[in-house]
Amino acid sequence: MREPRWWAELSLIGVVYAAYTGGRLLVRGDEASAVGHGLAVLRLEGLLGIDAERPLNRLFTDVPALGVPADFAYASLHYLVTPAVLVWLFRRRSAHYRAARAWLMAATLLGLVGFTLLPTCPPRLLDAAHGFTDTMAHFSAYGWWGGEASAPRGLGGMTNQYAAMPSLHVGWALWCGVMLWRYGRTPVTKALGVAYPLLTTVVVMGTANHYLLDAVAGAAVMGAGFLLAPRALRVVDRLRGTAVRTAGTEGGTGAGTREAPPVVSGGCETFAGEHIPGQRSAATAADDTSTPAR
What we know:
The protein has 294 residues and is an all-alpha fold. The chain is 65% helix and 1% strand. It has 10 helices and 2 strands, in the order αααααααααββα. The chain has helices spanning 6-26, 31-48, 53-62, 64-92, 94-117, 135-138, 168-183, 187-206, 212-252, 282-290, and strands at residues 268-269, 278-279. A two-stranded antiparallel sheet has the order 1-2. Helix 7 (168-183) runs antiparallel to helix 8 and helix 7 packs across helix 9 (212-252). The two termini are 58 Å apart. 30% of the residues are buried.
């Protein structure tokens, strides 16, 4: 398999991320449906007894020493850690890079399908009666973000605030964690592989950007992407192999390849001691040419 080229990989990842970002903007969904889906998720969690968002959100709101770092983590880490892990794999674990990249991309595109089918209002955008505080708006004076998720001030229109289900913050963090655990060679790297996805899950709930079930869905999307990626790679390899064979066939009849000229004599050759050429088989001719002339 040909080694990946950094510029080709960068272009491919850029195209996929642009498609993902553009897709999020195109499938914003209407507010009423998004709010309804958010409340349905909250009710389901209540029935299951797993609605851990409120106490976490209250803690992050009341203790700035927790809330402010959590806001910084939510606004930046997925933009920094995920590319850093990709670069690390490309440079240090190149044998595993292609499969890892395919897994990440497949899961990301599946997440886009989730945003399309199920636009969901995050807890922070629900009515205040539900007991959630938007910590990023509450602590906006500390960072570059405003009151519209992690978008910089004035750029809130460039993000889809109803793309909560599934949580790709959690999904990408899980992917990073698996890569660090599986291919890291030091205890510190493996510990970071465990801590990062767990920390991200706590952060997305404490900042009221996601429900617990959003995080579960993010992990499920990564699982589906893991199963889909090898099949996608096989299809890509098959198409690439077909293209190479087709190019080789077409190139074989071009100017770069010359066919052997036809034998004009039709196999009639004159050998030593003969005055008239005779028709001979290839084997007989070979024997005669190996016999010295008398």
